[in-house]
Amino acid sequence: MNVPATADQAFEGFSEYIHLWWPVSKFSQFGPGSHVTFERGSLLEESEDGDQQLWGKIVHLVAPETIVLDFTLGMETAPPTHVSLEFHEQGSGTEVVLTHDGWAAGEIGQQQYDRYTDWPEVLEYYARFMGAGGQAER
Prior knowledge:
Blueprint: E1 2-3, H1 7-15, H2 18-21, E2 35-39, E3 42-46, E4 52-62, E5 66-71, E6 81-90, E7 93-101, H3 106-115, H4 119-129
Antiparallel strand pairs: 1-7, 2-3, 3-4, 4-5, 5-6, 6-7
């Protein structure tokens, strides 16, 4: 997907302002009123009451180029999957590439995959936040 911003702006919009664009009404443990944030090397969701759920831990970060997470999204009993975001500045915008892999074997892996397949819709919220009109250019 492409967003109409520099790599610095695209990276900042994803990492520093995720609480403004993440669709918690559709994709969250705690629902409306909660917020998602990167804090202390982790991706967390926090409820209105201050309860927190760990979604992932940052294992590699090179601003404004790459964020790599060991991703659990509340499935801490399963091995983490891996989410990688890359920000490639191109002309008047930035290509944002998200790769999600590292599924566990068997039924646990299928449960992970079923739970984690909404990235295209989630990234549409991010793209609109970053100023992409309508459907973000892919």
